[in-house]
Design a protein that fits this description.
Distance between the termini: 28 Å
Radius of gyration: 17 Å
CATH topology: Rossmann fold
Strand content: 25-35%
Shape: globular
Oligomer: single chain
Strand order of the largest sheet: 3-2-6-7-8
Length: 195
């Protein structure tokens, strides 16, 4: 795989250590309960696979997809989120796994929709949390990594399941690339699920 132009942000050992630590913390928080893990695809695929193996509890796994259309035309930015699922939320302890939490718009939408199904509890674990980019205040119970400041020169995170134009997902580390140019017309951004 071409790694040219990718600067390492978190290496494989750092990621493995944090995932193991999160696994212990989550196991303790949900001790004695069965956890329903709901992972956002595709960006959360690698994180979810590693984290569920680090959680020493009985759990079930489900996958969701959300799509956002960001219209950059005329300086406006509109986000439309499409959400559908048949995950059995009611009365369950839900752990929602998200790859990157930045503006909070998508996560807020998902949390509101899941809450409508009356879960017993609902907690969020993110691979990367970017609180400085919030537009909506959303809870993040655990984060593998927190970036309190924007990346230098507006760089973009890739690797360990995170992509740009479907590239870089297979990198075993998380790195950054120069931020791709913003399109002048709307584009569809998809976080794809399966079940």
């Amino acid at each position: 795989m071409d790694r040219g132009g990718v600067s390492v942000l978190y290496d494989e050992k750092q990621i493995a250590a944090r995932v193991a630590e999160l696994g212990r913390e989550i196991s303790q928080a949900f001790e004695g309960r069965q956890v329903t893990v709901v992972a956002m695809m595709k960006g959360g695929l690698v994180f979810a696979a590693d984290l569920i193996r680090a959680v020493s509890l009985d759990l079930t796994c489900h996958f969701l997809r959300s799509s956002a259309l960001r219209d950059q035309g005329a300086g406006a930015r509109r986000t439309d989120i499409v959400f559908s699922t048949d995950v059995p939320y009611e009365g369950r302890d839900i752990l929602l796994l998200e790859s990157v939490v930045d503006t909070g718009i998508t996560l807020n939408f998902l949390l509101e929709n899941i809450r409508e199904h009356r879960p017993r509890s609902l907690r969020v674990c993110a691979l990367v949390d970017k609180p400085s980019e919030r537009k909506i205040d959303v809870p993040v119970d655990w984060a593998a990594f927190t970036l309190n400041e924007p990346l230098p020169d507006g760089r973009f995170i890739v690797g360990y399941g995170l992509d740009h134009a479907e590239r870089y997902r297979g990198l075993p580390f998380m790195g950054t690339i120069p931020r791709p140019a913003t399109p002048t017309t709307g584009r569809r951004i998809t976080d794809t699920p399966g079940q």
